[in-house]
Amino acid sequence: MPGSDQGRPGPHAHPKIDEETLIMPTITHAPASPHAPPVLDLDARLALVDATMSVRLAEAAVAFEVNTAHLPGADPIPHIAETPLPAPAAAPSPYRTPLADLLYRARLRIETDGWCRDAVFDQSGAVCPIRAIRLEARGDRDLAHDACVALLDAIQDQFADAETIPSWNAQQASAGPVLAAFDRAARSQEAR
Length: 192
What we know:
Elements: H1 19-22, H2 42-68, H3 98-113, H4 129-137, H5 141-158, H6 165-171, H7 176-191
Helix pairs in contact: 3-4, 3-5, 3-7, 4-5, 5-7
């Protein structure tokens, strides 16, 4: 019936909104507060910044864990290697000849880095006599070879049955005899 729907709104009709209900009051200035904001001293500001940075770092750590969770074997926090402290300056070599000086430096390396008996080197940085010589020779193969020959001669002067440096080194119980052999070899090369 066409005449019966006149008083009611249709299914798509909107109720009439008064323009006065759409107008909202606008505040042009903040209400005055009875108290001024507190003035923070340096310690209070530093504490505030510290708290803020701690929250940011915690959020960054969580984000990192979330972003790397799908990676197999991913560390939750990457390990940052500490830079090694520079080695203290060694005393000047008491020897004038290059060969005796090399033997002296190799002895110092074993003394500072540690002595390795059954391997060329280990995970702690300890080295065997031959590796100490090669490291201190800094690529001079002839000088390193001559130093190894001089060391073996010094070893065989006291241990006639020693066939090689590694086999003799493996028989030692401590670094003492090894360091003494370096001393004898360096003195012998300096005397030449």
